[in-house]
Amino acid sequence: MSSTFVQLLLEHAAQRPQAPALREKEYGIWQTTSWSALADLVKALAAGLAAAGLQRGQHIVVIGDNRPRLYASMLAAQALGAIPVPLYQDAVSTEYVFPINNAEVAFAIAENQEQVDKLLELRETCPQLAHIWFDDGRGLRNYQEPGLASLDDLIEAGQSFNAQHAGFYESEVAKARPDDVAAMFFTSGTTGNPKGVVHTHHSLLDRAQAGAEFDRLGANEEVLAYLPPAWIGQNIFSYAQWLACGYVVNCPESAATVMIDLKEIGPTYYFAPPRIFEGLLTSVMIRMEDASPIKRRLFHGFMDVARRVGPQLMDGKSVGVVDALLYKLGDLMVYGPLRNTLGLSRVRVAYTAGEAIGPDLFNFYRAIGVNLKQLYGSTETAVFVCLQPDHEVKSDTVGVPIAGVEIKLSESGEILVKSPGLLKAYYKNPEATKEVLTAEGWYHTGDAGFLDHSGHLKIIDRAKDVGRIMGGLHDGAMFAPKYVENKLKFFPFIKEAVAFGDRREKVCAFINIDFEAVGNWAEKRNLPYAGYTDLAGKAETLELIRDCVEKVNADLAQDEKLSGSQISRFLILHKELDADDGEMTRTRKVKRGYINDKYQALVDALYAGKSEQFIETQVKFEDGRTGQISATLKIADVKTFPTVKQAA
C-alpha cells in the first residue's frame, strides 16, 4: 500500500463523507463522527499543533483510552510529519520518564485529569515537556499550570491558524511519503528499559492491508476498541486497519461498561488477548454454577454435543444427521443465547494473540459457533506474520505465513521472519537493532517453534525460556514453561502461573488463583474468607488447585517431548502478580526472572522439599501508597504420570 495514514483519511472523507468513522459512548448514548467531520477535526488539530511549535520528525505522546479526539490527534501529528507515541494509560507516572526523555518529547495529549496529573508530576524529571493538552476537562477547571490547555483550545487555535495560512495543511500532508516514520511503540520489556519500535506508514499499512485481504474485511465491519492504544495489537486493529478498510471503530464509555457496549455494538470483527476470552468463559461458568439444576444439565448436555461436533462444523466438515440436528437444537437453546450474552453473536472473524491460548479454551468458542482464530506477530513485525485461514484452524498452531512473509528456522530452532512489516529500527539503539535484524533483512523473533507438515507454524515458547530438565527420571527432557503455564491457566480457578525447572531435576510452580472464580466456589461450600490472601491460604483451596495441576500433568504425560515438564510441587501465592509491583508487563506477561529473584525464598523452599514457607512482600496500592503483605504459604506435592508412548 503506497499511501500514508492521513491520505487514507482524506480519501474516505472525499468518497463517503457522511459515513460513520468513529463512535463514542458518552453518558450512555452513542455519538457518531463522520469521515468528513473527522477530516475537519484533524485539519484543525494539525494547525493548532503547528502553531504550538510541533515540527516534522518530533515526537508527541498520546495517553488515554480509545477516544475519537485522541485518534484525531495522532492523525494530526502524522499530517505534520511528527510521530505519535501512544503510552499505556494504566502505567504509573514513573514509567513514562524513560519514553518521554528517550524520545525528547515536548508535547503530550492526555485523555483526562488522571493522565494530566501523572504528566505534571514528571515536569522536574522531564523539563522539556512544555505542552500538555487534555480531552476531558472534568476536574481540571482550576489548574493553572503553564503549557496546560484543552483540546478545544488547540482546535480553536488551529482554526485561526488555518484562516491565516491557506493551503498550509494540504502542503504538509503532501510532503509525507510511505517510508516516513509514522509511529513509535515502546515494548513492554520483561527486562531492562523498554525499547522504542520505529514503524513507517508503509510497514504498518502494508500489514494492515494484508490482514484485511486475508479475511476479506471491508467498510461494513464494526469493531470495538477497548484495549490500550499503546499495545500495537489494538493500534493495528482499530487504527491502521480502520484507515485501510474504512470500517467503523466504536469506543466504549469506560472499562466498566465494555461488556454492555460489546453487546450493544455486536462487533463483526473482534480482537482480544487470551485473558479476555478466559475472563468471559469464567463469568459464564460462574453464572452456570448459580443456575438451576435443569439449566445446568441442559447446558452441560448441549456443550458435550458442541465440543464433539462444533469445531468440525466451523471448519466446514460434515457431521452425522443426528449430530447436526442436535447441534441446531443446541444453537437455538444454548449456543445462540450464549453468544448473545457474550456480545459475540455477530462476529464473523475473531482473533486472539499476545499469548498462547489453551486448546480447551480455544475450542470452547469455536464449539459454540464463534469463528475464533489465532494469529502470530509482535510489535516489531506490525502484528501480522501468520494467520489462520477459515476451515484450517488448529488449536496448537498460529496459522500460515500471509502475503509478503517468509519464515525460516535457525539451527537452534528460533523463528526468523522476513516481511514488509518489520520495524525500521529500535529508536536510538543500534546495538539492539543489530541483534534482531540481520544484514539480509531477517528478524530474530526470539520464539522457538517449527512449521508442521501442512505449513502451519507451531510456537513452543520463547527461545530463551526453553530449557532442559537435568537429573532425575527425565534428565535431558525439554522444559517449556509458557506451554505448562498456559495449560494451567485454562482452568477458571487459575489466573496466573509461573513454572520453574530449567537445569533442575523437576518442575515446580507458583499459582495465582482467580479470586472471583475461587471466591464463588468457596461461597457455594459455605467457606468463609477475608480477602485474597486468606482465600489463597485455605487448605480447601490448595486441594482444588492440586486437582487442576494433576489434570495438567496427566495431559503432559501424553506428549513424549514435554512429559518431563510435569509439575512435582506447587504453592499458591499470597498476592496477585501485578504490573505495579514490577512482576508483570502492562500486557500481563510475567517477568519470570524478576519473580524468581523477588521470591527466591519461595523457589528455594519448593526445591528443598519444605512443606511451608513464610514470606513478607512489599506491595503498591492503587493510590500510590506501599504496604506489606505476609503469610505462611503451604507447599503441595503433586502426582505425576508415566509418559504415554505414542504408537509409531
Q: Explain this structure to me?
A:
With 648 residues, this protein is an alpha/beta fold. Among the domains are: 5-190 and 230-248, ANL, N-terminal domain (Rossmann fold, 3-Layer(aba) Sandwich), CATH 3.40.50.12780; 467-637, GMP Synthetase, Chain A, domain 3 (2-Layer Sandwich), CATH 3.30.300.30. The chain has 21 helices and 28 strands. The strands form seven sheets. Strands 4-3-5-6-7 form a five-stranded parallel sheet, with helices on both faces. Strand 27 and strand 28 (626-637) form a beta hairpin. Helix 2 crosses helix 6 (151-164), helix 12 packs across helix 13 and helix 12 packs across helix 14. The longest helix has 22 residues, at 293-314. The chain is globular. The two termini are 48 Å apart. The model has no long low-confidence stretch (mean pLDDT 92).
Main attributes of the structure:
single chain; 648 residues; alpha/beta; Rossmann fold; GMP Synthetase, Chain A, domain 3; five-stranded parallel beta sheet; five-stranded mixed beta sheet; 28 strands; globular
Question: What's the helix and strand layout?
Answer:
Layout: H1 5-15, E1 20-26, E2 29-34, H2 35-52, E3 59-63, H3 68-79, E4 83-87, H4 94-102, E5 107-110, H5 113-121, E6 131-134, E7 148-150, H6 151-164, H7 168-175, E8 181-186, E9 196-200, H8 201-214, E10 222-224, H9 232-245, E11 248-251, H10 258-265, E12 269-271, H11 274-290, H12 293-314, H13 321-342, E13 349-352, H14 359-367, E14 372-376, E15 386-387, E16 400-401, E17 406-409, E18 414-418, E19 425-426, H15 430-436, E20 443-451, E21 457-462, E22 467-468, E23 478-479, H16 481-489, E24 494-500, E25 507-513, H17 515-524, H18 532-536, H19 539-556, E26 567-572, H20 592-598, H21 600-608, E27 612-620, E28 626-637
Parallel strand pairs: 1-11, 3-4, 3-5, 5-6, 6-7, 10-11, 12-13, 13-14, 25-26
Antiparallel strand pairs: 1-2, 8-9, 9-19, 14-15, 15-16, 17-18, 18-20, 20-21, 22-23, 24-25, 26-28, 27-28
Helix pairs in contact: 1-2, 2-3, 2-6, 8-9, 12-13, 12-14
